[in-house]
Amino acid sequence: MALARRILLKLSGEALMGPDSFGYHAETMAGFVGQIREVAALGVQVGIVVGGGNLFRGATGALSGMNRASADSMGMLATVMNALALKDALQQVGVDARVQTAVSIAHVGEDFDRDKAVRDLEAGRVVIFGGGTGNPFFTTDTAAALRAAEIGADLLLKATKVDGVYTADPKKDPNARRYDTLSFDEAIANNLGVLDTAAFALCREQKLSLVVFNVFKSGALKRVVLGEDEGTRVNLN
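Above: the chain's sequence. Below: its structure in token form.
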């Protein structure tokens, strides 16, 4: 399979915590940044959507009694903080990176601009999208699918702690089987929980292939973009 030209990597906020319970784990962050740099060095154009769960989750805030729209707005701000942290970590290893945010914050990041993002990608810069979709009630999975469609990504990559999509939870069921490939219809019908429904619908409509993989495995991101057998690929058919 040919090398992916342009990817959108969905990285959760929780992943940035590593083994910690809050914030950022330096060694884990360094591992992610090393993988992103390795892929960018191949000439792959890299966009990233990052979550905010290591700092604040809107849904959790709503469960504690907050207004959901207010809680989601706080969650969007957490994703901007994570985008800035990733930008700084990338720049420290010599990777040119930009932050665009769906939540307008002067002097922190550029407002989201699809054309500018594409120009930056074509110039070899990593573009990190913060602020989710800029609207409450939408997850960062949906933001990732939206940004991937907008920038014309070849692949949407969902970075997780497991090496793909399984028939059941592999930690609970020793007979759980990993899918090598899967259709969007199968994933939805079997309620596999790979993405939320809105994100799935957008990927299916835009014929955008998705790969779910374990970002904690050394070199996994590179193997995915090279088309090697890594993770689970979800396609239209």
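The mean pLDDT is 94.
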